[in-house]
Amino acid sequence: MTQIILVGIAAGVAGALLFLSPIGGTTLAFPLFTLCGLPIALAGLGWGATSALTAALVAAAILTIALSGSAAIIYLALFAGPIFWMTRLASLSRQDDPDSADVEWYPIGRILFQGALAAAIGIIIVGFVVGYDPAAITDEMIDALAGWMAQSPEVAAPPTVADIEPFVRFNVAAMPFTVSAILVIILVFNMWLASRVTEASGRLKRPRPAVWTAALPREAVIVLAAAIVVAILAPGAIGQVAGTFVGALAAALALVGLAVLHATTFANAMRIPILVTVYVVLIMFGFPILLLAILGIVETFIHMRDRRLGGAPPNQ
Length: 316
Prior knowledge:
mainly alpha; 14 helices; membrane; transmembrane helix; transmembrane
């Protein structure tokens, strides 16, 4: 138990330092910030839920002292909380026959589903804590962008506020969707990296499943459809909350879509060029996430990987 607590304390300190990295203003600030949940994931996957919980509480205490209670809540809601829950689910298993060596572990698709929901809930909590005012954010972004463009020596004729406003308003309106989608991807990357590290160290308790086998349960598509309807029809805060769930679940389904591409291109001579092209376009433009999400929805119902590979349907 002492080792578990000590690992949790060390992980909490590391997580808090990574969360504080943007204060330094270095070029590595953002990459380090995106890894601020990694220590929690390492503690949870390698030493269990108690260690992960200790890490989360230690990090929150440090951030409260260094910054504020609001910063601690943001860290807990966006990173520590969802990752703690995902690592706890990853440790769950059952054994129908005590005399059998077969152990059924909690499916990674359901971990992904619940992680996406936790990410959306975390963003909503942060919105209430820090305050989310689209009009104020729009005005601030327009002023900042207009000032930056006016001072840029590379811009001969800087755009006017009227030119900038439609672009900014669109991006602010899309923030509930985009922020939650990005957060889900960051959380999944942290979990994946932690699983690789703990497996290499021999601390990973469960066999690490192949990522390309991940499949969301069908209720994920149902929740997504309901959230889309609410986001379209409901104005104001309710629509923004629904948009947060749309973004989180769309990102989760897009990851399943990527898994489908990885699986269905096995033994294909063009596999590497296809995957590289998809990733480059996805990183540069972002919009292909919608196409991948549609692919993930289709996979949820018709199991293309099963038909392509001739194996059992993906474990849900």
